[in-house]
Amino acid sequence: MAGEQIDDAEMYWVRLDGGAGRLTEPRLCDEWRRLILSGLLQAITISTNGWTNAGHAVNQIYDLLYMMGRDDIAVGIGGEGGILNDGTILPSVGGYLPIVDQGYGTTGYCRYSQVIPLGLRGKLDIDTIYGFRKQFLPQANRQYLPLQQPTTQQILMDKISAGSIIVFCGGTPTNLALFLMSNPHLKKNIQHIYLMGGGLGPRQVNCPTISTSSCPTGNVYTGDNTAPNAEYNFFSDPFAAYQVIHSGIPITLIPLDATDTIPITTEFMQEFEKQQHTLEAQYCFNALKMICDTWYTTPHFSQIFFMWDSFLAGVATSIMLKQNNTNGENEFAEMEYKTITVITSNEPYGTSDGSNPLFDGLKKPRFNLMRKGIHSGHIVTGPGDPFCIAQNGCKDGDTQVVTGPEGVRVRLAVRAKPNPDKHSKLNKAFYKNFLDVINRPHQTGRFNYTTQFPHYREATNVPDFKGRKLGKTVVFDMDMSPGDFLALIYLLKVPTEVIYLKAILVTPTGWATAATIDIVYDILHIMKRDDILVGLGDLYASNQTYANFNLIGSCKYRRAIPHGAGGFLDSDTLYGFAHDMPRSPRRFAS
User: Fold this and answer.
1) pTM over 0.85
2) Cβ contact 514:480 at 8 Å
3) Please, are residues 378 and 107 in contact by the beta-carbon 8 Å criterion?
4) Do residues 171 and 50 touch, judged by C-beta distance below 8 A?
5) Distance between CA atoms of residues 583 and 580, nearest Å
6) Is the dihedral of CA 47, 51, 55, 58 positive or negative?
7) Tens of pLDDT, residues 8-59
8) Hey, is 106 helix, strand or coil?
9) Minimal CA–CA distance to 308: which of 247, 366, 253, 390?
């Protein structure tokens, strides 16, 4: 595959999930491995309007690329631009928020992202790769640095304006939609978009004890009936998904219907455990095993976890390797064409109930939208939205088959093809291909953290206080803002005969996200105070979690904190400085 020509286009992979952290799961391990091997991967952009936080995500990408020897690949994230009330999209808009809530800057409402947990089974696990990331990945030469980090829109402009290109979109399509809306004249340069998202048919996993025909089509779980048919990628920004689907660019869609047919099975995990011949295979397997061990019980894992984005990569690559392949023939999935659309608001259209920022309170709707058009109805305000509950579920982000001019004809995967080898324990063709690709010996990872630094030892630095009179015992409660880290270092420098810092309480409801706890551990390690206990506090402010599903909650207060410069991005990276610190043997573990 590495030496084969794929049409006449250069490859450009756009990573638009919040899941930069999910690069360790099979859904993405194979994706970046395939594209790196092909030599056609030009750039990566990261969306933080999903399952990951910007500072943790971008440094993880840099470390992964460094491990794979591909520091030539451009990486873009965020931006400080915004959208004006008249719909003008400013340069370098950050994409931290769904388009409907994007204002001037990087603060805003978490309307859709409330359905993603901030802690376990959510962003904390993804940002740290369940505690495995800093244990394994090497320390890259590149890192996030304020005022120097390329933005998402800069990277998109540089690569797409250069000529014919192909885009892989593995998650929330906010960044891509913003680019297409701002630069319609460059749509002609995008030869094809391969998109993972949406769901068209009922999912048996949603209701295993009743008839499949009545099952919801989505995978967004809120503990109630807010959005039963929505899929995470499209639900995180329905208006963006609509803009991409209706862009006029040829689309190949990998929906939940198809990925449901290629779950992470016990047999696959057993074979994967035997085949860890490269560093990247080891990294992916260990992270996946931690998900299996901590998120779900083994018998149910294959009912919940699937090869989402990696299936997109496999199908797309197989399609592109065949010249003049208009029907999408490939080794791994059966394909068909359907006319679809993405629902962005709920009927009745043209009503103003305060839920829709594209219309409410504006003399002229944003983006010249029609007052009583399909985007003008009620949109979800969050889990437990009374309008949605009364309607037996809202339709935001739903993917529907339609007829007439409101639909777009797209090519989509239907189901995974079986393995031609009937004697194999792996019953899908893509299972075998995934393991083959991830274990290929050429252009493999160069080193992990311990081989990069052979003298590194996971040993704690604990002081000996025998015979010393300790000062007043202090517990420091911090929210991990840069100012708090200065205070922490000051307290560590005060003689222990004056102040004996015994424990630190980390409160992730302020200016940093929960995964920044690893910086606390690193600073304590540098200062030879690994004896200090560190506790992680609640992920949500008081009374802000949802009763039906307490892993998720509101952003009522934290919405005032910028996602970008001066906010979470800078705090989570200590303005770029944290990446180069020695790594403590203590770290968050899921």
Assistant:
1) yes
2) no
3) no
4) yes
5) 9
6) negative
7) 433 444 433 334 444 444 445 555 555 555 557 889 999 888 899 999 999 9
8) coil
9) 253
